[in-house]
């Protein structure tokens, strides 16, 4: 329930009922299954990219930050260090509940009391207008069926003069590995859509 997270930022709805369409349900399920291995060294580029995005946002002490599609929370936890434990705070949201549970565990282990994670759809949040100084989304925007709608929502919850920062993969991401992988799969007769 989002009502337990920063009450002054959340609309006064009693419960947040996350209604996911088929696409978002499939994404949530896939990332839920992948959650246990998400922080392994082979996926280190996710954490490096998350830190680069936080650094780019130039966060400062006392700011309030939203991290959309937070995954296991690397960007949010790193942002929590930047905004400080006294007055700064970070909320990470994700549609994959397993990721949210892992992120909350990491926050507890790292004693990041100023960082919280909740299950919420980044296209349809329950936060009030102008609730955050910055909104971050590290490698997650391309999962939104309507990316422009997501950015519009993030702008709504960002204070005037605040930042909306997101990252995505370029055309050459994962090359040449992805082409080599596809070639080998095809040799076994598998059809890749």
Describe the structure.
This protein has helices spanning 22-34, 44-57, 74-83, 97-109, 147-156, 177-187; strands spanning 64-68, 89-94, 115-119, 132-138, 158-167. The protein has 193 residues and is an alpha/beta fold. The longest helix is centred in the first third of the chain and has 14 residues, at 44-57. Strands 3-2-1-4-5 form a 5-stranded parallel beta sheet, sandwiched between helices. The chain contains 6 helices and 5 strands, in the order H-H-E-H-E-H-E-E-H-E-H. Helix 2 runs parallel beside helix 3.
Helix and strand string, N-terminal first? HHEHEHEEHEH
Name the shape in a single word.
Answer: globular
The average pLDDT is 84
Percentage of residues in helical conformation: 25-40%
Q: What is the radius of gyration computed over CA atoms, rounded to a whole number of angstroms?
A: 17 Å
Relative strand content: 15-25%
Broad structural category:
alpha/beta
Main sheet characteristics: 5 strands, parallel
Put simply, the count of helices is: 6
Distance between the termini: 38 Å
Number of extended strands: 5
Strand order of the largest sheet: 3-2-1-4-5
- Low-confidence stretches at least 5 residues in length (pLDDT < 50)? none
């Amino acid at each position: 329930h989002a009502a337990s997270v920063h009450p002054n930022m959340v609309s006064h709805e009693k419960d947040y009922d996350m209604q996911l369409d088929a696409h978002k349900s499939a994404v949530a399920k896939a990332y839920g299954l992948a959650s246990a291995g998400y922080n392994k060294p082979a996926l280190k580029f996710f954490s490096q990219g998350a830190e680069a995005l936080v650094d780019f946002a130039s966060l400062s002490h006392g700011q309030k930050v939203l991290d959309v599609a937070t995954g296991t929370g690397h960007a949010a936890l790193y942002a929590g260090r930047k905004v400080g434990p006294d007055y700064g705070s970070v909320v990470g949201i994700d549609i994959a509940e397993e990721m949210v549970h892992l992120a909350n565990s990491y926050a507890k282990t790292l004693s990041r009391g100023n960082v919280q994670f909740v299950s919420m759809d980044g296209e349809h949040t329950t936060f009030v207008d102008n609730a955050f100084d910055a909104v971050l989304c590290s490698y997650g925007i391309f999962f939104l069926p309507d990316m422009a709608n997501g950015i519009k929502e993030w702008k709504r919850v960002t204070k005037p003069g605040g930042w909306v920062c997101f990252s995505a993969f370029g055309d050459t991401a994962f090359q040449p590995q992805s082409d080599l992988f596809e070639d080998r799969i095809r040799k076994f007769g598998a059809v890749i859509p």
